[in-house]
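Minutes, project check-in
Item: structure for the 303-residue chain
Input as provided by the requester:
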Amino acid sequence: MVEALDQNLEAFTSATQGTFILTSGTMQGYYSEEAYFKRLLGMATRRDVKDDTTDITKRYFEDDSRVKTKTLSRTDNIVFGSHIFDLVNKDPAMAQAMIARQLAEVRFQDHINTGLGALRGALTNNADALYTIPSDGVASFDGLLEGASLFGDMDSKIRVWIMHSKVRKDLRKEGLANGDQLFKYETLNIERDPYGRIFIVTDSPALTTYDSPNRDYYTLGLAPNAVVVEDEGKFRDNVETTNGKNNILDSYQAQWSTLFSIDGYSFNKSAENPTQAELWTGSNWTQKADSIKHTAGVVVKSR
C-alpha cells in the first residue's frame, strides 16, 4: 500500500511541473516554524558625488517566520470476517489486499483535496491573488489571462491551472482542443493545452462552493513549489482477531500524519492539529512574502 502511494505521489508531482509537491518529510509537534530574513527592498538609490556631509539611510535586516502545519488522520475500525471469504472459497488475505489498495487511493486523493482546499482558502482570502470573472461569471481564456496578470511581469511563473471539469467544459466551448494526456488517476486528469500550460482537471470539492442559488468555481494558477504536501512516513496499521461472537471476526485500523505548507504564506499555529475546515479557512493563512509575485499563485473565480 505504501509503495503504491509513493508511486502515485512521484508521478503526480512530475506531471504538475513541480507546482504541487507530493513528497515525504517529518517534524516534531503539531507545526514547524521556519525563521528567515525579509528581503531588503529599494536598496539601490542615487548618490551625489559632491556631497560628503549628508548621512545616508540605515537599513537593517528584519526577521520573520513561516509556519507549516501537521494533520493527523485515521481510518475507521474496518470489521471483516474470514468466514465470509471461506463461504465463497476465497483466501481471507484478499480482504487485507482490498483494504490496502483502497486506502492507498483514499490517502492519495486526501493529499490532493486537502492541499487544494488550503490553496483555495489562502488565495481567495488575499485580494491581490483573486480575480473574479465579471458579468455572467463563466470561465474564459480572457479570465485566466486576467488572473495570471495579477503576477504582473512575472506571470510566466504561472505554470499550471487546476480546475473543475465544468470550467474545462466552458473553455472547450471557446475552442480548447484536448491536448496530450500526461497523467490520469481515478477522477483526476492532467492535460496540456495548445498554449503549453498544464491543465489539471479534477472535480475536487475544494474547487467549488455552493451558496443558493449560485455555484462558484475556483481555478488555481500555480507557480513552482506552490504547495508542499509531505507524508510523514509514520503510517501505522493493525489487524486484530476477536472471539466471543458466532463467528471469529477480524478488524483493521490505520493512522498516519501529513504536513502542509504554502509558498509565501504562514499557517495560524494556534490551530493545532487542524480540521479540514480550519485548513481550508483563508484567515488561517497569512501572506509573508513581500509581493504576490513571490507566492504560490492566483485564483480565478467563475460560475
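Outcome recorded: Helices lie at 2-15, 82-87, 93-124, 141-148, 165-173, 276-279.
No further action items on this chain.
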